């Protein structure tokens, strides 16, 4: 489903990842954690091919960074749902039209648009808000609209970049609950976050960016709150089995 093979990823001349090897299976929910600026966004950008590795390969949804052509990137992104920290909703369109726009630009038949939009809004508990303008909604509700927009095209995976970064703790938990429900339907979900408390609240496979690579970690309590603790190799193998 998702695979990094001996991938070196850079921004400009700055090395972010070196010799990265990682496989995410269909239907997994995976957190990628690390400090701000550690490379979480870079990792997700490489999955939707905004960035390509300078060495090695990134594969997702049947596409490879080695062979994908520029015109194919749009087709890849139609198979993915991408959720950003800043919501990125169209402020001049209501909630319904924000979702419908995604379907119309990909050629969905008009007769199917309404059902798909309302089904996606129902998944995040916002079918009642279809005619509302985004600015009338709370931050948590706007992010749920963004998740519905990511979901409306029936993606094989959702990539969420700090989806709770602009939200209060209660809204953050609510957003994560909806992402987990979506994952329970078999959709792969990859979440980049620095909110260790949130990961602790809903534990799943967690990867820490460390020394230009990814290592499996657990989130444990410490005197200042929560911190990632790298799992010994034996424990990591046992956790996967």
Would you spell out the secondary-structure blueprint of this structure?
Blueprint: E1 2-11, E2 14-24, E3 29-33, H1 40-47, E4 55-60, E5 63-64, H2 73-78, E6 80-83, H3 95-105, H4 110-123, H5 139-151, E7 157-161, H6 169-184, E8 188-193, H7 196-201, E9 205-210, E10 213-222, E11 225-230, H8 233-240
Parallel strand pairs: 3-8, 3-9, 6-7, 7-8
Antiparallel strand pairs: 1-2, 1-4, 4-5, 9-10, 10-11
Helix pairs in contact: 3-4, 4-5, 5-6
Describe the structure.
- This protein is an alpha/beta fold.
- The protein contains eight helices and eleven strands.
- The strands form two sheets. A seven-stranded mixed sheet has the order 6-7-8-3-9-10-11, sandwiched between helices. Strands 2-1-4-5 form a four-stranded antiparallel sheet, covered by helices on one side.
- Helix 6 links the parallel strand 7 (157-161) and strand 8.
Précis, in short:
Residues 233-241 have low confidence and may be disordered.
Strand percentage: 25-35%
Number of strands: 11
How widely separated are the two ends? 19 Å
Radius of gyration (Å): 18 Å
Strand order of the largest sheet: 6-7-8-3-9-10-11
Shape: globular
Number of helices: 8
Mean pLDDT score: 91
Query: Helices and strands: which structural class?
Result: alpha/beta
Q: Which spans have pLDDT < 50 for at least 5 consecutive residues?
A: 233-241
> What's the order of the H and E elements?
EEEHEEHEHHHEHEHEEEH
Helix content: 25-40%
Main sheet attributes: strand count, strand direction, barrel closure: 7 strands, mixed
């Amino acid at each position: 489903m998702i695979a990094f093979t001996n991938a070196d990823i850079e921004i400009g001349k700055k090395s972010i990842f070196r010799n990265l090897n990682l496989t995410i299976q269909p239907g997994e929910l995976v957190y990628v954690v690390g400090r701000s600026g550690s490379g979480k966004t870079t990792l997700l950008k490489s999955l939707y091919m905004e960035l390509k590795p300078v060495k090695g390969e990134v594969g997702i949804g049947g596409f490879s960074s080695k062979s994908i052509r520029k015109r194919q990137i749009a087709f890849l992104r139609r198979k993915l749902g991408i959720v950003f920290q800043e919501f990125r909703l169209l402020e001049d369109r209501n909630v319904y039209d924000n979702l419908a726009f995604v379907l119309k630009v990909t050629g969905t038949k008009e007769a199917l648009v309404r059902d798909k939009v309302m089904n996606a809004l129902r998944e995040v508990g916002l079918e009642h808000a279809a005619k509302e303008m985004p600015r009338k909604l709370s931050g948590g509700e706007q992010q749920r609209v963004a998740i519905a927009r990511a979901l409306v095209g029936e993606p094989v995976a959702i990539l969420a970049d700090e989806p709770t970064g602009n939200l209060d703790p209660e809204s953050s938990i609510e957003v994560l609950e909806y992402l987990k429900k979506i994952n329970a339907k078999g959709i792969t979900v990859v979440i980049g976050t620095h909110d260790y408390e949130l990961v602790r609240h809903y534990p799943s496979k967690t990867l820490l960016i460390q020394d230009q690579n990814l290592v499996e970690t657990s989130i444990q309590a410490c005197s200042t709150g929560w911190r990632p603790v790298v799992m010994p190799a034996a424990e990591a193998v046992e956790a996967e089995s």
